[in-house]
Amino acid sequence: YTQDPLQYTNWEGTTETLVGGVMQLDAMAGWTKGRFRLGLDIPVVLRSFGGRDGDATGLGDASVDAKLRLLDPAKSAVGLAMSGRVGMPSASTGGGLGAGGFWGEATVSSDKHLGDRLDAVVSLGVDFAPEQELENVTWGTRAELQAGLAYSLSPRSGLAAEVYTAGVLSDFANERARPTELLVGGWTRLGERRGLLLHPGVAFGLNDAVTTPAFRAILSVGWDPLAPKAPPDRDKDGVADGVDTCPDAPEDLDGFADTDGCAERARVTV
């Protein structure tokens, strides 16, 4: 839910609400292979409230995205990834809720572990959008900056905070063309293999720029089960302790009785 994302204030100081509130559901799916991920986002505007076009329900701008991780922070000093997104003009609600044409994003992100529980991430990107002339802003392609911290309370849950800001390249000096907001939230895992993943969050606008909301509330619900935990194997021979006849002596894998977990005497053929 986003409150007051688009308002107009005239020279007399009178404010007119163009979009008073938006209740939106995003259906998202992703496929990952190694370091590569491909994703799809289909936004559904459950209801937009108020404004010149009145209340409306319909589709938003659908998009596809791809991400490639170049460096893993677990193996390198920092993590590094490149991502891109292409959006289609599929919005059917009007009222400023669509870009008005095809749009795209290109982003470079870096993350780093700051100890066992704290992680930091910084993203720099460009959001390519059709140019629109408003009364006091030339709206269009923007440079974007995101920076955040995540703190793990336990393997199941954690807290996060993020700052987002952007500036329209053709009107960068105009403070109305630099939307900025602060997001605070967290995550928790529930159920078998901790597969049910919940991400609640709230955001607050830090200025009065175009698209900066007064308030935003977010709840993400996903299914992303952790890999099953491997059974105990004290001698590390690939035979679980529960079926290993010799749990403290590794199997020799010589092609003869290699499933009992015990090393066999050498066979000599005469």
Describe it for me?
With 270 residues, the chain is mostly beta strands. It has no helices and 15 strands. The strands form 2 sheets. Strands 1-2-3-5-6-7-8-11-12-13-14-15 form a 12-stranded antiparallel β-barrel. A hairpin with a 4-residue loop joins strand 7 and strand 8. The chain is elongated.
Summary, kept brief:
The chain is mainly β and 270 residues long. It is built from no helices and 15 strands. Helix content is 0%, strand content 53%.
Mean residue pLDDT: 86
Distance between the termini: 80 Å
Shape: elongated
- Cα Rg: 26 Å
How many strands, what sense, and barrel or not for the largest sheet?
12 strands, antiparallel, barrel
Main sheet: strand order: 1-2-3-5-6-7-8-11-12-13-14-15
* Count of alpha/pi helices: 0
Number of E strands: 15
Element order, helices and strands? EEEEEEEEEEEEEEE
Beta-strand percentage range: over 45%
How would you classify the helix and strand content by structural class?
mainly beta
Low-confidence stretches: none
List the helices and strands and how they pair.
Elements: E1 2-9, E2 15-33, E3 36-49, E4 56-59, E5 63-71, E6 79-87, E7 103-113, E8 118-128, E9 132-133, E10 138-139, E11 142-154, E12 157-168, E13 180-190, E14 196-205, E15 215-223
Antiparallel strand pairs: 1-2, 1-15, 2-3, 3-4, 3-5, 5-6, 6-7, 7-8, 8-11, 9-10, 11-12, 12-13, 13-14, 14-15
